[in-house]
């Protein structure tokens, strides 16, 4: 939480000024019942009209000052909380994008989304309300008590007696509240995950008539969230009635004792009226305190979740490892890796590629093909062995430098709502020529037939493109930045054979100097590779050129023969 509080540091001066204004506004309000008491008890009985008008005018000025100062202070607090939350969200988003693959797995994507959205919203509410109420409530409370003590100390004691009981009750409820709101946010994570999965698979859900099934699954997550929110709300809603009950007991005592004192001539009716006004102020202040505790419970629970991500250690540190005299462009040396650190997902992988060579990777589903690519991109670090680029250990290459080397197409890669130019350029400010060439090499000639061509828009996730068209736009994106290493993960599976063959020709001719790592299901996509890795359950069961593997690797031969008609 300290981390979140540190975001307020740049606004110290503004917050101090805002608090002074708030204090002035609250003090002006506090004077009103006392002025009323003076008018009723001192001036009216003596019929001093000028003095009555003067004190009445004073009351109007105080009321106006209270209004204006409070409005100014509230505007300032809203401005500060807006800027602080914007900065927290910005830093959080930037941190999320820099998390390692293992950290994303640990936090989970839906949880990161809810931390970025609903948690930062709760933090915003906490910062905003705390500035508004945290000054006003104590001043009203303590000022109200002080004024009642000044007006009639005996009556004030009757009112103040239950306060410690109230503070203890609110504190105990709030502690429990933080726990319950943390549980609620975890349920929100689950609901976001369900919604995200359903949105991503909306077409399949509709096609397979699974709308009721998915609605049921979402309803379950929604109910869980609502239930936890209800439990937290139930608890925190107990604070207001608790305060009311205790204060009403105090009020009854005040009215009874006050009536007795007026009858005995120890107090005056104006003082009792002022007393009741202060009582209302104290009541409002306590209500505010209870709201502050609800807000704090939510805000602290959310702030901790946000801080967890902001303070997540940098997994991908750059180590000063000296480069080895190695002429290979890419080398894997005895690389092993496991996601869960139990069973190996990749075991003892070794290969080396010269600049301009092509590595093909093939194997059954789940054998570790994409994992190998993730290690090459340093989304995860190997548990054993090392990965070298130009003889430099991947661990020693700063991520900015490393990632500039690659052009990548992942499985299920994403396109966003924008022009095709935006999607291919991807914020790199590439020359128009480079974009056109990339589109041509990616066989994305369909672009010229769309309205607007490269400047035409596509929908989010490329929803208005066919599977093959999406893949070609993604290929164009990967090819456009003149990468030195091109990574293609099953990126031509939706292309027809003719287009696939044209793509391979473009890769061979236009990218002859680029080192290529191609994961494919089709043997035809990798048969001309300089080296092919055949993976099975994370281990290499065949390694060599197509012709060698046809002789030496039965699994490869079986795949190739099964696709025989397809191999060109
Ligand atoms: N983020 C992850 N956390 C834990 N396990 C994972 C993760 N990603 C993949 N795995 C597991 O690692 C193994 C290899 O997965 P990988 O995605 O590399 O397979 P693949 O060969 O690319 O499969 P496909 O051909 O279906 O894409 C699988 O058993 C998979 O369940």
Automatic annotation (TrEMBL):
Instruction: Tell me the GO molecular function terms.
Output: ATP binding
Family matches, as Pfam families = ABC_membrane (PF00664), ABC_tran (PF00005)
Q: What residue intervals traverse the membrane? A: 20-40, 52-73, 139-161, 242-260, 272-296
| Major location (coarse) | membrane
Taxonomically, the superkingdom here is Bacteria
**Is Chloroplast set as a keyword in this record?**
no
Q: Which SMART domains match?
A: AAA
Q: Where in the cell is it found?
A: Cell membrane
**UniProt xrefs under PANTHER family:** ATP-BINDING CASSETTE SUB-FAMILY B MEMBER 10, MITOCHONDRIAL, ATP-DEPENDENT PERMEASE MDL1, MITOCHONDRIAL
| Record's protein name | ABC transporter ATP-binding protein
- Provide the species name: Gemmiger gallinarum
Classification of source organism:
Bacteria, Bacillati, Bacillota, Clostridia, Eubacteriales
């Amino acid at each position: 939480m300290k981390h979140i509080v540190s975001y307020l540091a740049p606004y110290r001066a503004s917050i101090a000024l805002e608090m002074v204004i708030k204090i002035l506004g609250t003090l002006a309000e506090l004077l009103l019942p006392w002025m009323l008491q003076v008018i009723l008890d001192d001036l009216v009985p003596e019929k001093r009209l000028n003095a009555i008008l003067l004190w009445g005018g004073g009351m109007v000025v105080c009321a106006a000052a209270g209004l204006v100062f409070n409005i100014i202070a509230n505007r300032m607090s809203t401005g500060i909380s807006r800027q602080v939350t914007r900065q927290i969200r910005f830093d959080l988003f930037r941190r999320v994008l820099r998390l390692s693959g293992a950290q994303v797995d640990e936090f989970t994507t839906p949880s990161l989304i809810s931390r970025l959205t609903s948690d930062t919203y709760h933090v915003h509410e906490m910062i905003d309300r705390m500035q508004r109420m945290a000054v006003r409530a104590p001043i009203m409370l303590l000022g109200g008590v002080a004024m009642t003590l000044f007006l009639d100390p005996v009556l004030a004691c009757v009112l103040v007696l239950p306060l410690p009981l109230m503070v203890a009750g609110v504190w105990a409820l709030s502690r429990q509240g933080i726990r319950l709101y943390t549980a609620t946010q975890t349920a929100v994570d689950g609901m976001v995950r369900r919604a995200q999965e359903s949105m991503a698979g909306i077409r399949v859900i509709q096609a397979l008539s699974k709308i009721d099934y998915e609605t049921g699954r979402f309803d379950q997550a929604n109910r869980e969230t609502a239930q936890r929110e209800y439990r937290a709300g139930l608890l925190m809603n107990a604070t207001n009635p608790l305060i009311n009950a205790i204060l009403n007991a105090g009020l009854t005592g005040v009215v009874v004792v006050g009536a007795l004192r007026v009858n005995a001539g120890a107090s005056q009716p104006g003082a009792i009226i002022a007393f009741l006004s202060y009582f209302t102020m104290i009541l409002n202040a306590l209500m505010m305190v209870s709201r502050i505790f609800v807000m704090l419970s939510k805000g602290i629970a959310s702030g901790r979740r946000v801080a967890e991500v902001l303070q997540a250690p940098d997994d991908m540190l750059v180590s000063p490892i000296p480069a080895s005299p190695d002429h290979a462009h890419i080398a894997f040396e005895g690389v092993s890796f496991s996601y869960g650190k139990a069973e190996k997902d990749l075991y003892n992988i070794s290969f080396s590629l010269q600049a301009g060579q092509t590595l093909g990777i093939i194997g059954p589903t789940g054998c570790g093909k994409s994992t190998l690519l993730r290690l090459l991109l340093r989304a995860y670090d190997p548990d054993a062995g090392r990965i070298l680029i130009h003889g430099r250990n991947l661990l020693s290459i700063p991520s900015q430098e490393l990632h500039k080397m690659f052009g990548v197409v992942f499985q299920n890669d994403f396109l966003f709502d924008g022009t095709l130019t935006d999607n291919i350029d991807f914020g790199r400010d590439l020359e128009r020529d480079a974009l056109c060439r990339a589109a041509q090499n990616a066989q994305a000639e369909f672009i010229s037939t769309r309205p607007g061509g490269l400047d035409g828009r596509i929908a989010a996730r490329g929803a208005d493109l066919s599977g093959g068209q999406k893949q070609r736009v993604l290929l164009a994106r990967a090819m456009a930045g003149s990468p030195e290493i091109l990574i293609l993960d099953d990126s031509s599976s939706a292309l027809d054979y003719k287009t696939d063959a044209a793509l391979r020709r473009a890769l061979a001719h236009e990218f002859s100097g680029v080192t290529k790592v191609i994961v494919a299901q089709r043997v035809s996509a990798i048969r001309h590779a300089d080296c092919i890795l055949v993976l099975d359950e994370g281990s290499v069961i065949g390694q060599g050129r197509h012709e060698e593997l046809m002789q030496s690797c039965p699994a490869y031969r079986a795949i190739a023969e099964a696709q025989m008609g397809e191999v060109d």
